[in-house]
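Protocol step 4 of 5: obtain the predicted structure for the target chain.
Materials: sequence only (see below). No template structures provided, no constraints applied. The aim of this step is simply to have a reference model before the mutagenesis design in step 5. Sequence pasted as it appears in the construct record:
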Amino acid sequence: FDIVHRPWSENKVEELAEEFAVAFKKAVTNRTLPFLGRSAVALSGGLDSRTVLCAAPNRQDLITFTCYDEENREFRIAREIAQATGAKFVPLKRPFDYYGENAALGVKISGALGCIASNHFLGFRAQLNELCIDNLLTGCYCDYVFKGLAINKSYTRWTERESIGAFKFNYYGPRYLSDTPLSEKLGERLERIFPADLRQYDSEQRVMQAERKRMFPLSYEEDLAERTIPQRVMGWYPPIGENDLMEVHLKMSCAMRLNRELFVRMVKRVCGPKVCAIADANTGAPVDASLLRETFSSSWCRVEDLVRRLAGSKTTGGSWPNWKVYANQSPTIRELWSRPNAMADDLFVKVLGKERYKKEIGAYEDVYLFLQLFTLKVWLDQRNG
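Step 4 output (structure tokens):
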């Protein structure tokens, strides 16, 4: 597959949206063929998974499931989507220590590539087997391929409208800098991968070239555990891997990637008015809501999430737990992290420096830095064993 961008002009966005919808339906049809076995869609309240569900030709033969901690906003929207499409809905409630209990096996399966906080499905493997599910479908990579997740962006205050920003080495997940020799070598390596002319980020060609370096192959990104573990032990066939959809990606201009400009047009064609009228859990507004309504709804969702965090809630309004609270309260995380490992201690000091590497979980202001260290720590324990 030749990854050469051939962006269409903006006046062809509707034409490309139609091609996109046809390609999406074809991709899901291919990935739900009978010989693949019984198919299930991991359903959230966002746009990606609902589009996978609506693109399936035989929705009544599918099972949808949602992993959840409590019946929050995301859960209720996912259930409403399943009901609107006539698909069977199976709620899978996580026990409190779900991620800790599945961390060691998840690290072993994924080789510690990607953060183990994305190990969303492994703990429900037994339940999925009981449902006779052979084929897991997700909306993974839609954000990368069609919504410009790998592009450095600027955001308008209040409306959160996207535009091309200045180049930064980090884009989706944070990049943790330190003044250690190892960190400096990492910086030098990144400068070789993204040379100075590319970092000027002053043309569509340069933006797309940087995006391509970050995205392909679709296997080494931060959420790798969410994809690799199911692929290796469950049967995971991502519709986004179809060549017709990749052809759409290559025809998208930067403007079509930003603000879900092309993606929303495709979603409306695939899902229809009934499902599009159901709120998007990410914005709290229907798919085709006005900018004013979307801005108000998004702001309200952020206020709700802020109140939860300030109250120290273990849960969020979305799909996943409050990681900061969970990491500090999980007995399994604490036990695995506290196991002595001189190799891990030495490596983490070399990466972060003595001042930033902490043995106490609560000392990490950024819980995602801890979770990445924890993932590597478990892997190093397994190597020593």
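Step 4 remarks: The mean pLDDT is 93. Residues 61 and 87 are 7 Å apart (CA to CA).
Proceed to step 5.
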